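Morning run. Coffee first, then this:
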Amino acid sequence: MKKLLLILLCLPMIGFGQMDKLIFSSGDTIIGKVIEVGVNDITYQHKGETTNNVTKKRELAKVIYSSGRIAIFQGLSILESKIAIEENERLYLQQKEENKKIKIQKREDRIIYFRELNESKSKNNFVIRAGISMADIRDGDDWTTFKEDNTLGLSVAIDAIFSITNRIDLDASIRFSQKNVKTNSSRRLDLDGNPFPLYKVADLNKINFIEISPKLKYKIINRVQILFGPYIGYAVNGKRELINDGSPYSGSGDFAIETEYVPSVDFNHTSIFYSYKINKLDYGFNIGIDYNLTKKILVRSEYSFGLSNLYSVNSLSQLFFEGDFSQKTSVFYLTIGYILN
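And here it is:
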């Protein structure tokens, strides 16, 4: 009906033979003959009838005469407003229905997504990994920095992987890791608080840790997973080596010290001049990424950020040595694993 009215309003030149067309503000249409147009009323006859009918001019929108002439009346604005309201209601209901369909589709998509997550096709398995580590020391005050801070080490781990969903796994690992701590710095001060013009040497302690690390793994794509989780480690043993930065001794010449290895780390050192302690407990968090080369071979790149201060000295030591002595570790791992299932 609305489309017909719009056509009739927009295409008024359509003829109807010898009949007139009366369009009312209500939207009703009559085919007939206009008999008389008065001041306030119009007299007309229905098609095929001789009875006169009278209507108020304000109730008419327009009259399209058989000659093609169009007469506009007060009811036209009422009819146009009515058509606009009905069209807006139609568009509103149409948009509402489309939004309802979108919500239903999103709900179905969420159901399908979580169903895929819960219907896990993964299997629980074990992974044996081995590779290299790059250990670094994060000094509190960079009190004695040596190139030997960054050292290569060995990393061996066993992972127990438990599938939670098709995308999420729990990776509980036990890892052997090698980290560094510097001790016995010889960067001393005189009684005025100025550094002696002597060489700077220290002991670089390469310490072996056993770590436990539970991590969550999330599958991004079929072969790639990201992982994140805390770790806690305990130092079991290690070795020391004497290092120096090549500073001149007493203002002339180079002071060269051969690397000296000591079979064990002195975790608690006490002397008449100073004492220090290497804390055996380390903790922090891991982030990394896994890539499955094949169904059995896994490559992992991982970064370990330590939060525990592994080195502390007593107040007497600080009279002879300058700087913030705190040390924390950072380790980068690159390992290759074999998946057992």
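Confidence is low (pLDDT under 50) at residues 6-16, 187-191, 248-259. Good start to the day.
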